[in-house]
Amino acid sequence: MVNSSSAQLLRDPIGAIHALFEEATKGHAPAAHEDYGITTLFEESFEEPSELAKVPSLTALWQQARSNNKSSLHGKLARVQCHVVHSDSEIYGGAYRNRQGGGWQFGRYGCDIDEALTGPLREDAISFEERTTLDCRCHADPFDLTDALQNVSLASGADDDVLKRLTVKLYNEKEEGLLHATLDIVGLVEVADEEVILHALIARDERLASRLSSSTEQASAPETRDAVMQELAAHLSGDALAAECLLLALCASVTVRSPVLIGPIALNLRNIEGDQASALKLLIQELAAYTEVIDLSIAGLNKHQLFPTHDGEQFKPGQIQLPKDTVVLLDESALSEGKLEERGVKNLQCLANSITSQELVFAFPFNEFKIAMDLCFIDLSKGKSLLPSTLSIPVKSGSTAAARQPASMTLKDMAIYIARCRLQEVEISDEVSQAIQNDFVRARKAGEAIDQALFGQGLALAKEVTRSYKRRQMVFDDYRRGVALASEVNARQ
């Protein structure tokens, strides 16, 4: 009987795995499709959040082993949250027959094989199996202050880049549908020539906003909304209109893809540069589930590769390959005259397509395919952006006081609120829908300056106003506020 306590599995995970394998294969040959109860054992033992929290993060283990031989991490149990940028499959030896006694040794999860017992390996002495190999980017838990990767851009040159690119070996799972998924992994560590490999025992697909929204929220939606508005306005020269547009953009997400993309608000904030741009980026990084800053200077566009490529042999991920709910901060504040090279031109084309379609094109030598995204694009620029946007607004100094949130309202509370808003579904009842149509007809008859485009933009903003109050049902006042916002934005152009 295998000891299933979380404490024992933390002390000797490989011992527990071997015990289950040996118990299941007594008198039997191993089977490629058989799990031997290993996944169930670990999932049940770490089902409770309090037990799962006892598993050290991969970052913490790596930090502890800095001064030691990294090979000491081999076989340790670790957890990590990561984003899949590429997937493939491979054949490997899942079990090896011993030369004497007829027993088998387990080869999954990076378990070491004693070649002295197996002797010269023959094909009939190996159980060949298939597993999925994932090329992943690691993420920090935004509320885990011990995680060294917290608030680090996914493409930055941090000292721990070796951890930010991770190979995950996934067993008993197919690779279909995993590309761009965000996975919570608990597995066994293997370090090979400074490459970190995690052999997954538990793999859960969880949206980033869902992870944040599970935290406890302290205040009501209107109270938190007001606090977020005040904080954003304080970083936007007191401009209440720009602050509300930014709030709605952070809350918006894709709701419909076909036949027309509906939901996301790509926002261009103009007249932003220097210290104000830096301070605003830092604030958004605190409020978002995850952020990626993309340098849109001429040098930055020519240097970095935003789009993924494959030359037939090697896959190279792009910087824009990001998990759902990421806020992409496009920084044009340092843009000046210069010459865009071929890569720079392709980067701009990639961004423009990603903003308008929320799809990322994967280019292969003889074909290409598209992967759906759900990202929030915020473009900070001095003048009008080079890129398309849903809303473009010049930031102006306003009369709004640069107030901060009450002492009881933290940036963490605000981040939880925004995450929950992104997950909020919005419906329009028949009654409200009829009232909106009647109001549109009335406005047209009265000669008010509202055309089909303004009506559509106002209705889209109205849905996000509803979402920002965390209401499922839109009320007519939300529609009126949405149209008013659209009118105010257009009046500033």
From TrEMBL:
Establish whether keyword Lyase is in the entry.
no
Q: List the record's Gene Ontology CC terms alphabetically.
A: nucleus
UniProt keyword list: Nucleus
Predominant localisation class = nucleus
Domain of life of the source: Eukaryota
Enumerate the subcellular locations listed in this protein's record, separating them with semicolons.
Nucleus
GO biological process per UniProt: DNA-templated DNA replication
Q: Which GO terms describe its molecular function?
A: chromatin binding
Full protein name: Putative alanine racemase-domain-containing protein
What is the native source organism of this protein? Protomyces lactucae-debilis
